[in-house]
Amino acid sequence: MSDAIEFAQRLIAAPSVTPATGDVFAEMEAMLAPLGFEVHRFLKGEAPDGPVENLFAIRRGPSGSKHFAFAGHLDVVPPGEGWASAPFTPEKRGELLYGRGAVDMKGAIACMVEAVRHVPADTGTISFIITGDEEGPAVYGTRALIDFMAERGEEPDLCLVGEPTSVNRLGDMMKIGRRGSVNIWLEVVGNQGHVAYPHLAENPIPRLVAMLAELDSLTLDDGTDWFQPSNLEITDIEVGNVAHNVIPAKAKARISIRFNDVHSGQSLSDKVMAIAEKHGGHAKPIISGEPFLTPPGVFSQMVSDAVESETGVTPEQSTTGGTSDARFLRAVCPVIEFGLVNATMHKRDEAVAMPDLDTLSRIYTRIATAALTS
Ligand SMILES: [Zn+2]
């Protein structure tokens, strides 16, 4: 039995709803320092999105050795109501360990810590890139850590993010990329008036409807070898007109696009803005992340081999799902995500199978060793 389960319990017991600071990072430092890691912790940002705590820890191998990084987050989403046990009091029932963050992703971070105990220090340099702001706006988190590392000239050769990527059983999926995401606010301004005198008013709703119909009918692309087709969804329509005899002055809507590497956030924003203007409206985009792809190759094979050796399963190489901090780390080095089964993430009664923690620790040991020695 490994210590991963104990590490996971210690992390779960430190409440860390996003943005996280304090105790959970002290716990992490207390685990890493005895393993020979030099631990840096710093706060970034102000309310409401901060302050956020970030941790960079490094154990240096012999000079000239390779540098492998584990990355992840210690913040969690709010627990919500109706848990069978207290969400920040880890509880074992049968094979399962319950607690907020058990799979997303304190469990995986516990496995990373356990994993490095089994990688001799002279194998190479290992670091931990751990933020308290992944589940929130991610403004003061991993991006600040990347700046922190750049200032010190710390450059990992490869990075593994421990997000819960497995679907039905540990090992069945890894992420070699993620789609980008852009949300766009649309608005059409008309001229308010009485419905009985439409010639004296200008109704913005028909123009908004035509705009949305055109946007909804777009085929953005047909997908690529590694990505599903980009998708545009209408996520809100808002007029807020309570009077049955008034033509409203304004109509608004919002769309959300998840897109592959055929596009950039800017290229899609430009396209939508042109359509909005054609219908006499305006569009205001906010890009939350660009897509990334670590093309299948040496690194994905390392991860795949490690998973197969411990589970007998060959992981599917996927780019599905939401965004993650890998969207920032990809600027530093090749990055792949692999972690626990995600069935209960963000849910009530989040739980991890304790045998999976032991298995994932061994998988992480194999990946780190391969990354440093190949
Ligand atoms: Zn996560």
TrEMBL record:
GO terms for molecular function: acetylornithine deacetylase activity; cobalt ion binding; succinyl-diaminopimelate desuccinylase activity; zinc ion binding. Pathway: Amino-acid biosynthesis; L-lysine biosynthesis via DAP pathway; LL-2,6-diaminopimelate from (S)-tetrahydrodipicolinate (succinylase route): step 3/3. It comes from the Bacteria. Residues 176-281 form the Peptidase M20 dimerisation domain. Pfam families: M20_dimer (PF07687), Peptidase_M20 (PF01546). Its EC number is 3.5.1.18. Gene3D superfamilies: Zn peptidases. Binds 2 Zn(2+) or Co(2+) ions per subunit. Zn(2+) 2 binds at D104, E135, H346. Its cofactor is Zn(2+); Co(2+). Keywords: Amino-acid biosynthesis, Cobalt, Diaminopimelate biosynthesis, Hydrolase, Lysine biosynthesis, Metal-binding, Zinc. It catalyses: N-succinyl-(2S,6S)-2,6-diaminopimelate + H2O = (2S,6S)-2,6-diaminopimelate + succinate. GO terms for biological process: diaminopimelate biosynthetic process; L-arginine biosynthetic process; lysine biosynthetic process via diaminopimelate. Zn(2+) 1 binds at H73, D104, E163. The active site is at D75, E134 (proton acceptor). Belongs to the peptidase M20A family. DapE subfamily. Catalyzes the hydrolysis of N-succinyl-L,L-diaminopimelic acid (SDAP), forming succinate and LL-2,6-diaminopimelate (DAP), an intermediate involved in the bacterial biosynthesis of lysine and meso-diaminopimelic acid, an essential component of bacterial cell walls. NCBIfam families: dapE_proteo, PRK13009.1. Homodimer. This is Succinyl-diaminopimelate desuccinylase. It comes from Parerythrobacter jejuensis.
